[in-house]
Write a structure and sequence with these properties.
Number of helices: 6
Structural class: mainly beta
Largest sheet: 12 strands, antiparallel
Number of strands: 37
């Protein structure tokens, strides 16, 4: 929980107090980075995953191009590119309601910036060197787009049937009967009461995750009851929840003949400001008339949130919001004290929760398969009731243009598009994968790989997609000899660690913190008798600290840390397989007034460097051969499996590509979450010249409270060699 922090609070050290005093209110103007080479600030990662292809947060900036004309998108890219050339980065961020937190055990889509710029809503590139996206601008080896005919006008939506002026008596009675009181005893023993309703299928009750006291990696509530209008109490069990969207579903036995008829989930995307709505707003099942007061759209054709005109009683949290047809278009969310309107979660959040949706997809590296080139696309889905009916990918070639947003309608072919091929995804248990045969790429064209998901209700959704073109040769499935080398060497590297976490304040309001810590390093290998030594010298430090998608500190707040960078170092024993142990290094050379602030950088960055020291096998590996490593990292056990995917000659370097998958467990406790990542190995020099891991772990949030703020969130760590040649 986060207690409100007051500038100058005596419990803060001088460095933190100075940072708080310099804290910027929500910024509406560009933020000038302290580091000219800093990537664009990532946005919040709360947007619905099927509306983006991660990189969100990075996936952050691509939403600017969506819905804009191609000319506008290219103009924006030119302005951003020119601005970054001057050493100034525009921090364009936002945090919609979300795709985030995923159900337990699911890793979120990877959100991060590439050295060449931001890459939003398209299939994510593991290596970071084969993307071609509209917003990041062309790389030196990318082809320039050729002039193309204007985009065809989209087909107009068919006219909707007019809504009735009022809800009829039968629909109103059905809504009252389907609404229930919810009594819960949470995992911590506390009791709570609110509302819920039967919808979608018999026995399924929707309510808010907060009412049930649900948390990631925590036990479910001790008991949940749905109290029918007749007074009958039915005991249920939680089947799905999404903390980021604050929605949950539990199931009660369906054998009872008196079970109310379930409501139909409508289409909240069709809501209009001022539209007449109804809320079942009291324990007496009173139907209260209201109207839609505010709509917050997402990218694509869905809502992230809307409001109804009048607040309702606290006991109505979880109650259905209906249109005049009697269809559910939303659910009452917890009310903020003093707010003049009432927040509501849109119906698409509810259908996404149980019907199934994609929460992450990862595009691998192209590889040669005989005379053909293929690429692997992996999916992670939230599908708690196993309702996803089909998952496929539509593949075609076409002109470079703005990304396509997610839609319930198939996109119209554009002039210059090649034939479209549908490829089925092998999907089971929340995960899917497909090896896509890439067609021949005509001159001045790019690939489009658009996933299509058919959910539990039988509706097909065309997910967001970006243009993509490989900028490096495909992998060759040939054996490679792996060996870590400890000869004397010095190299420049960039180390980045990013934490994204949602925590609740003392009023149970969620806050999303997105923190990126960066360092330019000089790494030196020093041979010795027995074990060698790896020594780091810090050269520059940088940070992006976002609260609910907005920068919270002026650059000057972290200037003392950047100025102290040259006084920082760290050293480890370097084993023959590349693992690190016995770290040494102190902050004694840093001024006492700045030491606590500098420590926030130092601790996170050295922990990230230790995480990325993935041990190498010794000897020859065949394509798709795996190896496992087990080691302790921080207060966790890390079990990691590496798969050798192939090799290639690129930039005069023989490099091998490895994908990682594993599990992070606490000391003496059960599993915390999945670990995924990838790495590029320089076969001649025997070291990772680029490596990245994404995992679920405890994230500490500094500067916001005099007490410790920690919660389970997503951690990303990346190391890149700046002079790999």
């Amino acid at each position: 929980r986060v207690a409100p922090t007051q500038p100058g609070k005596d419990s803060h050290c001088p460095a933190c107090k100075k940072a708080i005093q310099l804290a910027a209110p929500p910024l509406a103007k560009p933020v000038v980075r302290t580091q000219a080479s800093a990537p664009a600030a990532p946005s919040g990662s709360s947007r619905a995953a099927d509306d983006l292809l991660t990189p969100t947060a990075i996936r952050p900036s691509a939403h600017l191009a969506r819905g804009a004309s191609s000319a506008g998108a290219y103009l924006l890219v030119a302005v951003v590119a020119a601005t970054m050339t001057l050493g100034i980065t525009l921090a364009i961020v936002y945090w919609p309601g979300k795709e985030k937190p995923t159900p337990p055990g699911l890793l979120l889509a990877k959100n991060q910036a590439d050295e060449r710029g931001a890459y939003d809503a398209g299939p994510s590139d593991k290596a970071g060197n084969n993307k071609k996206g509209v917003e990041s601008g062309p790389s030196p080896s990318a082809k320039k787009p050729v002039p193309r005919p204007p985009e065809p006008e989209p087909e107009p939506d068919p006219p909707l049937e007019p809504l009735p002026a009022e809800i009829d008596a039968a629909a109103a009675d059905k809504a009252k009967r389907a609404s229930v009181a919810v009594n819960v005893v949470r995992a911590d023993g506390s009791a709570a009461a609110g509302s819920g309703f039967f919808a979608l299928e018999p026995g399924l009750v929707f309510t808010t995750a907060r009412l049930l006291g649900l948390k990631e990696k925590a036990p479910p509530p001790r008991s949940v009851q749905a109290v029918l209008p007749s007074g009958q109490k039915l005991v249920g069990s939680v089947v799905a929840f999404d903390l980021g969207r604050d929605v949950a579903a539990f199931r009660v036995p369906v054998q009872d003949k008196d079970l109310p008829t379930h409501l139909t989930l409508g289409h909240s995307a069709r809501l209009a400001a001022g539209q007449k709505l109804y809320v079942v707003a009291s324990a007496e099942r009173e139907l209260v008339s209201t109207k839609a007061a505010s709509l917050r759209p997402s990218t694509g054709d869905e809502l992230q949130e809307f409001e109804v005109a009048e607040p309702v009683a606290a006991a109505a949290t979880g109650a259905p919001v209906l249109d005049t047809r009697g269809e559910v278009v939303g659910m009452i969310a917890p009310q903020q004290p003093g707010a003049p309107t009432q927040r509501a979660a849109p119906a698409n959040f509810l259908s996404d929760l149980v019907d199934g949706r994609v929460v992450a997809r990862t595009l691998g590296e192209p590889y040669r398969d005989g005379a053909h080139t293929k690429v692997r696309l992996d999916f992670v889905c939230a599908d708690p009731l196993s309702r996803i009916k089909e998952l496929k990918v539509v593949v075609w070639t076409g002109d470079l243009s703005a990304p396509k947003s997610a839609s319930w309608k198939p996109p119209r072919p554009r002039p210059g598009d090649g034939p479209r091929t549908e490829i089925a995804v092998d999907y089971q248990g929340g995960r899917g994968s497909v090896d896509i045969l890439l067609p021949e790429l005509p001159k001045d064209k790019v690939y489009w790989l658009q996933p299509v998901l058919v959910n539990g209700s039988g509706r097909a959704r065309w997910l967001a997609v970006e243009p993509w073109e490989p900028l490096a040769p495909p992998l060759e499935r040939r054996p490679a000899r792996f060996a870590h080398r400890t000869e004397p060497a010095t190299r420049k590297t960039q180390l980045t660690t990013r934490g994204v976490v949602t925590v609740l304040d003392d009023k149970a309001k969620p806050h999303l913190f997105d923190m990126t810590w960066r360092a330019d390093l000089a790494e030196t290998i020093e041979p010795g008798n027995g074990a060698a030594k790896l020594r780091l010298k810090f050269e520059r430090l940088g940070v992006d600290f976002l609260h609910d998608g907005l920068p919270q500190f002026a650059p000057a707040a972290f200037l003392p840390a950047d100025q102290a960078a040259g006084k920082l170092d760290a050293a480890w024993h370097l084993a023959a397989d590349g693992t690190l142990s016995q770290r040494s290094g102190t902050l004694e050379a840093v001024a006492a007034a700045d030491r606590k602030l500098v420590k926030e950088f130092y601790d996170r960055l050295v922990a990230a460097r230790e995480l990325l020291a993935v041990p190498l096998p010794q000897g020859e590996l065949k394509p798709l051969e795996t190896w496992t490593s087990k080691r302790r990292w921080s207060n966790y056990h890390l079990d990691l499996e590496g798969t050798y995917e192939g090799r290639r000659l690129h930039d005069q370097r023989e490099e091998a590509y490895v994908s990682f998958r594993g599990m992070l467990t606490g000391i003496g406790v059960r599993s915390l979450g999945h670990v995924e990542g990838h790495g590029w190995l320089d076969l001649a020099k025997g070291h990772w010249f680029k490596i990245e891991l994404n995992l679920e772990a405890d994230i500490w949030v500094p500067f916001v409270s005099p007490t410790e703020v920690k919660a389970l969130g997503r951690l990303e760590a990346r190391l890149s060699t700046m002079n790999p040649d």
